[in-house]
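Researcher: Please predict.
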Amino acid sequence: MPHVRLRRSAAVLALAVLAPLAGCGWQQAEAPHIRDGWMVYTGDATTVRGTCGVLPIELTGSHTRVRLDGACHAVLVTGSHNDIHVGLTPGGRVEVTGSHNDVWWHRTGPGPRPTLLDRSGRNGFHEQAG
């Protein structure tokens, strides 16, 4: 039964090649923690879904997809290569110290335009209709 062994060997080889690729998918980030009065989300190659509240938000890590629901008043992005979607309170603030991040934002109500700070000069801010 050499053809059975050959099929089994092909299946084992396919698993050996494809298994590492399965680990490249997006994972759900760890639960946030509080540090120095900030709600901190940390992770690399993860998906973050959070809700803004009283505490300001800090996002660390790289290659992360982020969606913050609610009305955020302060967001600090220290990582790189992240895609961030956020609703900002009137006069809210997003500060990005990392690089190659894209922040899609919308206003959650009428009022002053948010402050958008790009400290590295290598990030993009994109306004969306709320």
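Model: The chain has one helix and ten strands.
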